[in-house]
Design brief:
single chain; alpha/beta; Purple Acid Phosphatase, chain A, domain 2; 2 domains; 6-stranded mixed sheet; 8 helices; 25% helix; 29% strand
């Protein structure tokens, strides 16, 4: 089985049992690689910066595939290393090879908000990326009521882009919230920037057309927040995790992007290449042999439904954004 994971203006990733990546392609050009025919995306001009994102990394988790109170479906087998370690180790290696200017981890850093789980996350990601790392909590990190990685709004600049990262999690709850202060701060930060802005958080926005399978930012907050974001033309996307799926849709012309989880199939991370005439978003897979074994095992979760659900379509995993809407 061969499949195109993602295509950008100058690169492709193909999975055929191993992860194959090729850079240096020409924009808007048809190619054939590994038996797959694809066309690269439109040019984004000169690349100014590269931002990589992860979410749902779940350090400390020992079993997955629970749903509706049912039993777990998958766990690391005897002799195997813990799967969150395997998957995150591979993703960190893959991202490091891409030489990003910024790495944003958007929540569910831990399985249950335990300090030792957060310490393991921080050692691995900060050890690899240092000051290039920006991270925030998700719902799993707040279940116990412990507070960490909960800065309400973080504003980080890289060449050609401003990233605004929100804490959408709240203690002891799975759904997300966004306060009026967070909305006002986000809008002000975007309007003050001389570059495009991408807004990020753990939870996606529960707005018409989202068809969320899990709790997102609660409806009232989500619609108020989405209207505010859509009113600022320099905000070119809202990007989140939480649902463990690759998906994109729009609200009032604003692209809303979800990226699948690191910790199981497909072992996903996002890449935003910031150019002088556009922004290329692409999804990539954890490439180590250990990670591929675990990811392909969990593709079969929920009687095979999970693979299709988590992967989405190619247009969910490859997208070119304008510098202004």
């Amino acid at each position: 089985m061969s499949e195109v994971v993602s295509v950008s203006s100058t690169s492709v990733e193909i999975f055929d049992g191993t992860v194959y990546r090729e850079d240096g392609l020409l924009p808007r050009t048809e190619y054939e690689r590994r038996g797959m025919v694809f066309t690269t995306g439109p040019t984004i001009g000169e690349r100014l910066a590269r931002i990589c994102t992860t979410n749902d990394v779940h350090f400390g988790e020992t079993e997955c595939g629970k749903f509706g109170g049912g039993p777990a479906q998958f766990w690391s087998l005897p002799g195997e290393r813990p799967y969150p370690t395997v998957m995150n180790e591979s993703v960190v290696m893959d991202i490091a090879h891409m030489e990003p200017d910024l790495v944003v981890v958007r929540g569910d850093l831990t399985n249950a908000g335990e300090p030792e789980e957060y310490d393991e996350f921080f050692r691995m990601y900060h050890g690899a990326f240092g000051d290039r790392l920006c991270h925030v909590r998700g719902n799993h990190d707040g279940y116990t009521g412990r507070e960490f990685a909960n800065t309400p709004v973080q504003v980080v600049d890289a060449p050609g882009i401003r990233i605004v990262l929100l804490d959408t999690a709240r203690e002891h709850q799975s759904f997300g919230c966004v306060s009026d202060d967070q909305i006002d701060t986000t809008v002000a930060a975007a309007r003050a920037a001389s570059t495009p802005t991408i807004v990020m958080g753990h939870h996606p926005l529960d707005v018409p057309g989202a068809d969320l399978p899990a709790d997102g930012v609660c409806v009232d907050d989500a619609e108020r927040f989405a209207r505010a974001l859509a009113s600022v033309r320099s905000i070119v996307a809202y990007s989140a995790g939480h649902t463990h799926r690759c998906k994109r849709y729009e609200y009032a012309g604003l692209p809303l992007i979800e990226t699948a989880a690191v910790k199981d199939f497909p072992g996903a991370f996002g890449r935003y290449d910031i150019g002088t005439s556009g922004i290329s978003y692409s999804v990539h897979r954890a490439s180590s042999s250990e990670a591929v074994v675990w990811a392909e095992r969990t593709r079969a979760m929920f009687d095979g439904f999970y693979g299709t659900y988590a992967y989405g379509h190619l247009h969910d995993r490859s997208l070119t954004l304008p510098l202004e809407r």
